[in-house]
Amino acid sequence: MIVQFIGLGYIGLPTAAVVAQHGIQVHGVDVNPKVVETINKGEIHIIEPGLEAVVKEGVEKGYLEASHTPIEADVHLIVVPTPFKGNHEPDISFVEAGTKAVLPFLMEGNTFIIESTSPVGTTEKMADLISKERPELKNKIFIAYCPERVLPGNVLHELIYNDRSIGGIDERSTDKAVEFYQTFVKGELHRTNARTAEMCKLTENSSRDVQIAFANELSLICDKAGINVWELIRLANKHPRVNILQPGAGVGGHCIAVDPYFITAEYPMESQLIGKAREINNYKAFWCAEKTKNAMLEFELKHGYKPITAIMGLSFKPDIDDLRESPAKYIAQKVMQSEQNNFLVVEPNIKEHSVFKLTNYLEAYEKADIIVFLVAHNEFKSLIYREDKVILDFAGIFKK
Ligand code: SAJ
User: Fold this and answer.
1) pLDDT value at residue 185
2) Is the CB of 323 within 6 Å of ligand 1?
3) 2-187 homologous superfamily
4) CB of 197 closer than 8 Å to CB of 145
5) Which residues, listed in sequence order, are joined to residue 190 by a DSSP beta bridge?
6) What ranges do the domains of the chain cover?
7) Mean pLDDT of residues grouped by 10 in the chain (400 residues)?
8) Cβ(211) to ligand 1 under 6 A?
């Protein structure tokens, strides 16, 4: 069996490597020549614990190869990004381009699977495209949707042990896709149709977004009411049926802050709560920036000189080096743009940054007058609360 991956990014590459690890021949395709070259050297262009060793092994044993061009294969997977356009409309042009790229190589009996997060109906659209361009393959290839749900940082484990929802455009397609995932997934494989599987992915991330929005909304209320939101949530969660998430500086990353728009763009009237959650989580980052600017002004008025402000954390969530769609980065930029103050920017998970000059976290904590915690990195949790500093703890470092 030959399995072909179109897209060797954050999901495509780990999945391709894990499939190769199971002794299956894998051909990976990426449009970026640097990515292809890096992988063929047994190296990786993304950061994911343990991944490089698996890629290296796959390449060395000859099970994994990367290329610019597709080939004939038994199973084809589309694992490309689906961003949104300026107006929050989903952009499926990469899925379309990936499908068009494999079109000439499709053969009778092939399985074609889309993993990219996609608006409802995308798999049917791609099935129509294939039927139009290759009418002789109608009902002769199997087409399905199967979303990934791995957590960055724990991808290699979750790829194998998470359950998956698999939805074909017909029963036989679901069977064939299940057959493929059985080769490397130990979690349960749940059968459904393509539209439900597409919506399932969007639902999972929207659900988390809505829950985080609830925590963020509580943090705004508590700030006004003079209540410690961390204590409040800890106490409320003692109820056997309550499980509130943690507020933070907003919601970032390429998934949770994006996927809900795939629902709101198509069902705007019906998705009021999902849309509102997006607004609240975006607003939370804006609010943190305003709070920081106010604290700097107050300091100056009180002391007669401009404070040194430490921006603690830039990544989109704790203990990773990923700054994509990061609310912390947004807040840092917003605050630093508007003020002529002195800033110390801290991100313990990266060595250097093209825009921000980085400072060690201990040094920044010592030197700054105002400390703004934006991400709950482990390093920060070891710091001792300082009464002599102005501390804006948006990440819940001290929780007291
Ligand atoms: N966050 C909070 N409070 C919390 C939890 C998270 O503010 O209590 C924030 C984080 O700081 C971060 C954002 O939410 O900015 C997202 O972080 P995350 O850890 O919740 O999720 P991601 O984006 O790393 O991964 C999510 C996962 N989805 C769900 O948990 C439902 C993952 O399983 C998906 O595979 C991934 O999105 C994806 O690729 O879609």
Assistant:
1) 98
2) no
3) NAD(P)-binding Rossmann-like Domain (3.40.50.720)
4) yes
5) 165
6) 2-187, 226-393
7) 97 98 98 98 92 98 98 98 89 97 98 97 98 96 97 94 98 98 98 98 98 98 97 98 98 94 97 98 98 96 96 95 93 88 93 94 98 98 96 92
8) no
Domains 2-187 and 226-393 share a fold: yes
Q: Which atom of ligand 1 is nearest to the CA of 212?
A: 3
In the prediction, which pLDDT does 339 show? 67
Q: Determine if the pTM surpasses 0.90.
A: yes
- Indicate if ligand 1 lies below 6 Å from the C-beta of 98: no
Contact partners, residue 14, CB within 8 Å, separation at least 6: 48, 51, 54, 150, 155, 156, 159
Rounded distance between C-alpha atoms, residue 262 and residue 88, angstroms:
8
The amino acid at residue 149 is R
- What pLDDT shows up at residue 324? 87
* Ligand 1 mean position, distance from CA 389 (Å): 31
Neighbours of 158 (CB within 10 A): 16
pLDDT for 400:
67
What are the tokens at 67? 């290329």
Structurally, at CATH architecture level, domain 226-393 sits in: 3-Layer(aba) Sandwich (3.40)
How many C-beta atoms surround the C-beta of residue 234 within 10 A?
Answer: 12
Q: Which residues partner with 145 through β-bridges?
A: 114, 167
- Tokens encoding 361: 């976290």
Q: 150 CB under 6 A from ligand 1? A: yes
User: Rounded distance, CA 142 to CA 246, Å?
Assistant: 42
pLDDT at 47: 81
Q: Which residues are catalytic?
A: 201, 255
Ligand 1 centroid–CA 172 distance in Å is 33
**Pocket test residue of 154, 210, 212, 394 for ligand 1, highest count of atoms within 8 A of CB:** 212
164 CB within 6 A, ligand 1: no
